[in-house]
Amino acid sequence: MGDISNRMRIRLQSSAIGFKKLLRSTSITILLVGCSSASSNSIQNKEKPSESPTAIELAVTHTPQVNNVTFLTMSVHVEGWKGENKNPEKFDRHAKIILDVAHEAHNAGAIFSFELSSEFAISSGAKGVVDELLSLGHAIEVHADVGGVGTPSFERLAEQLSTKFRQIHSLGVTPILVSGICSRGPFVEAALSAGYLMTTGVVEYCLTSLDDVYHPKGWNIDDCPSPSECHGNPGFSLSQKATPWYTTSSRSWTVPETDADFLIVIGESGAKIQCLAEDDARSSGCEYNTKDIDKYAQLAESYVLHGEQSSEGRCCVFSTTISIGESPPEGFISDLLGSVSLLVDNGRAVWQTPQQVYERSTERKN
Predict the structure, then answer these.
(1) In the beta sheet, which residues pair with residue 264?
(2) Which residue of 19, 81, 253, 288 is most buried, as measured by CB atoms within 10 A?
């Protein structure tokens, strides 16, 4: 862990703004992560289970903890606009949407993780946008969107992810998180090789990398041919969704390991914010509306309540995703964040960067 600790010390993503907010809170982060005292028997060891091998049994003791706080983080997938890296006017329009969201979140007291596509990151204007995002206290990470065709080799995935790591690093940021990596290939090993330490936005397609013995009961890999057709939530319990765990293997990533460095954060993966209230997003499409905000607030409350009863040190993280792309309706971000402001004001939840989430999870692991 020495090299990892050294790497973590040089990361510059946690801004002065975020640190001041941390000092004002008795606990530490849209990711909601709740913290409490660690439990030595709260998570499976890395031995493969002989029964129900797909279940991640995170033995939770439902005893209220005095100092629990839920961590909040929002992954913003900055989807590339075709040709924006060669069209400054197009890039500027996209950048304005990103910065409008960033300022709206900042004014509401939130910290977002802006995860950049290559198309956006290699544009000539990207450095200025990144600097402004960092000045607001937000994080900059990678949205890879790779691995979804066929069964890519380790070498191919590692090359693609390393390229995207270098693109963000050239903007003055050392990324820790990569999203959009679900694959039939060895996505965990490739991400680690490229320098990443965690992922969010885990969707059902990620299950296709598992050995057969770890497939969920009744789940058929033939029904999951591509990320677009298999983009829903993997079907984990609230305890599993709220409690990050570590892995080293794409073939068994649903089984937590005690001696590993790559952090899996599930949360409400598989449903973007604008899809939270949709029964069948694939058939009806997703639109931003007040029902999404109501659902978001209900989910946040459920994670906070779960965290306040959990003795698992890495619980709880409420991780959600928004894709931009298109601009959210005026005022939507403010209303969304306002729906959880009471949880934050009362000290039951706090906004954090992915870096801070990883650091706290590592502290609780050791």
Answers:
(1) 199, 245
(2) 253
Burial (CB count <10 Å: 0-12, 13-18, 19+), residue 317:
buried
Average of pLDDT values for 240-249?
96
Per-residue model confidence as pLDDT tens digits over 73-121: 999 999 999 999 999 999 999 999 999 999 999 999 999 999 999 999 9
Residues in Cβ contact with 10 at an 8 Å cutoff, skipping those fewer than 6 apart: 174
Instruction: Name every residue whose Cβ is closer than 8 Å to that of residue 287 and which is 6 or more positions away in sequence.
Output: 274
Amino acid at 15: S
Query: How far, in Å, CA of 140 to CA of 102, rounded?
Result: 12
pLDDT tens for 198-222 read 999 899 999 999 999 999 999 999 9
Distance between CA 339 and CA 28 in Å, rounded? Answer: 19
CA distances from 67 to 26, 27, 35, 102 (A): 8, 7, 7, 30
C-beta contacts of 253-256 below 8 A and 24+ residues apart: 253/188, 253/206, 253/209, 253/210, 254/54, 254/56, 254/207, 254/210, 254/214, 255/44, 255/46, 255/48, 255/49, 255/53, 255/56, 255/214, 256/43, 256/44, 256/45, 256/46, 256/56, 256/58
**Confidence (pTM):** 0.82
Tokens for 240?
């599993």
How many Cα atoms occupy the beta-carbon half-sphere of 256 within 13 Å? 22
Task: Order the strands of the 262-264 sheet from edge to edge.
Answer: 198-199, 262-264, 245-247
Look at residue 264 and tell me whether its pLDDT is greater than 50: yes
- Integer Cα distance of 100 and 113 in angstroms: 14
Nearest partner of 353 among 143, 147, 115, 116, judged by Cα: 115
Confidence at residue 252, expressed as pLDDT on a 0 to 100 scale: 97
